[in-house]
Write a structure and sequence with these properties.
Chain B: It catalyses: 5-[(5-phospho-1-deoxy-D-ribulos-1-ylimino)methylamino]-1-(5-phospho-beta-D-ribosyl)imidazole-4-carboxamide + L-glutamine = D-erythro-1-(imidazol-4-yl)glycerol 3-phosphate + 5-amino-1-(5-phospho-beta-D-ribosyl)imidazole-4-carboxamide + L-glutamate + H(+). The complex is a heterodimer of chains A (about 210) and B (about 250). Chain A is of the alpha/beta class and about 210 residues long. Chain A is about 25% helix and about 30% strand. Chain A starts with a strand and ends with a helix. An 8-stranded parallel beta barrel of chain B has the order 1-3-4-5-6-9-10-11, surrounded by 7 helices. Chain B has about 250 residues and is of the alpha/beta class. The chains are: A alpha/beta (about 210), B alpha/beta (about 250). The interface between A and B is medium-sized, with 34 and 33 residues.
Chain lengths: ~210, ~250
């Protein structure tokens, strides 16, 4: 398992939580290591703009794209999920993100932000990430999110599974789209439920 | 629906827990990580370490504690005490802290709030306020430093609004008047801060029993923090959550 190293985020817990889920984890930005790994995890905290800049500085966008083209699993966490959309809107700053999915990440409309704490999710039907933990709570800490899923159903491709949560308004809490998965919450900070989710994800590797 | 967080706070000095921790069956009573793991297992929603050894610079032991905690305990960890600069925050985050608490450094130089928020995002920054009731400010609440011993003349409610504007991600509101009384949180203070700001508010100071927590939530707290009630084993996290649940508060 490769954990993308681009200088952002608390990667300690992510690495240790993945190891607890049965993975051998390498924190790296090395191209060959990342391409060969069974799974790539993209962490992220702070702003979308700084995370996109950090990822691009290690050519992470291209590596993610190449892995996905070969059906190789990638998991984005928190801002590591947000960067997968087309655009990030922070104040007046518009960031062109990695664009794996259509749509814009913007500030949630809620009385109190950041959305900070343990919240329930509405797990998508057939979710493998949430198998056995559909009713658990997960730890969120963010002010921005994607509030729309814009990929229309298509008869010839497997339907992406979307999981939603609510804080002021509904937003995407997780997406399972073939080899590309992401969570807006922090599984590595979500206690036993988060550990189970990571174990579920690790369990899907190699089966795509 | 978001739950109200219950957060035990541990005072740490020289890599050991100090002040009034009485868990008889702990193998090592003074190990903060062991105690943190126990609280996490009991259902704590987050943990706070308060480094009471002056400055981050002068105490690398807290970094080792934070690192060990982040490797073993998979719930969010806030670390406060002596944090003055962006470099201090960077060091704590690099060792595994999820959030960092800033108190007197923000009063000495408010720009540090903007700087930390710009560098790492608002979500890492908890600004702590030690608040004293006072006739000298418009709101009747004054910010203090040095654990309440030093007055600043700054209106606590205006200060809360200012640090929110500057980029704080959360406010830890500690009542110096209520602290140690075990008579309950200062509900008027919580309500006043809630009304003046738009970030999560953590209530601190005064918890004497499980029945004291729900009123703090009704007053506007998004999270409740306590130390001695848990360390003395007078109440468990579960006791507190059961009382909150019975009072209609959503908890995990």
């Amino acid at each position: 398992m490769a954990l993308l190293d681009y200088g952002m985020g608390n990667v300690h817990s992510a690495a240790k939580a993945l190891e607890a889920a049965g993975a051998h984890v390498t924190l790296t930005a090395d191209r060959a290591t990342i391409m060969e790994a069974d799974g790539l995890v993209v962490p992220g905290v702070g702003s979308i703009a700084s995370c996109v800049a950090g990822i691009e500085a290690v050519r992470g966008g291209e590596l993610i794209g190449r892995r996905l083209a070969g059906g190789r699993p990638v998991l984005g966490i928190c801002v590591g999920m947000q960067v997968l959309f087309e655009t990030g809107l922070e104040g007046r700053e518009e960031t062109t993100a990695l664009g794996e999915w259509p749509g814009t990440v913007r500030r949630l409309q809620a009385d109190v932000l950041p959305h900070m704490g343990w919240n329930t999710v509405e797990a998508g039907e057939g979710s493998r990430l949430f198998a056995g933990i559909e009713d658990e709570r997960f730890y969120f800490v963010h002010s921005y999110a994607a509030t729309e899923w814009l990929i229309d159903p298509h008869p010839r491709i497997r339907q992406p599974i979307t999981t939603w949560a609510e804080h002021g308004e509904r937003f995407l809490a997780a997406v399972e789209n073939g080899p590309l998965c992401a969570t807006q919450f922090h599984p590595e900070k979500s206690g036993a439920a988060g550990a189970r989710l990571l174990t579920n994800w690790v369990g899907t590797l190699g089966s795509e | 629906m978001l739950t109200t967080r219950v957060i035990p706070c541990l005072d740490v000095a020289g890599g050991r827990v100090v002040k009034g921790v009485r868990f008889q069956d702990l193998a090592d009573q003074g190990d903060p990580v062991e105690l943190a793991a126990r609280y996490a297992q009991q259902g704590a929603d987050e943990l706070t370490f308060l480094d009471v050894t002056a400055t981050v610079e002068g105490s690398d032991t807290i970094l080792e504690v934070v690192e060990r905690c982040a490797e073993q305990v998979f719930i969010p960890l806030t670390v406060g005490g002596g944090v003055r600069t962006v470099a201090d925050v960077s060091r704590l985050l690099a060792h595994g802290a999820d959030k960092v608490g800033v108190n007197s450094a923000a009063i000495a130089r408010p720009e540090v709030v903007d700087e930390i928020s710009a560098a790492f995002g608002a979500q890492v920054l908890v600004v702590s306020l030690d608040v004293l009731r006072s006739a000298d400010t418009a709101s009747g609440f004054e910010v203090t430093t040095h654990g309440g011993r030093r007055r600043t003349g700054i209106d606590a409610i205006a200060w809360a609004a200012e640090v929110d504007r500057r980029g704080a991600g959360e406010l830890l509101v500690n009542s110096i008047d209520a602290d140690g009384t075990k008579a309950g949180f200062d509900l008027e203070l919580i309500a006043a801060v809630r009304a003046a700001t738009g970030v999560p508010v953590v209530a601190s100071g005064g918890a004497g029993g499980p029945e004291h927590f729900a009123p703090a939530v009704s007053a506007g707290a998004d999270a409740v923090l306590a130390a001695s009630i848990f360390h003395s084993q007078q109440s468990t996290i579960d006791d507190v959550k059961a009382a909150m649940r019975a009072a209609g508060v959503t908890v995990r």
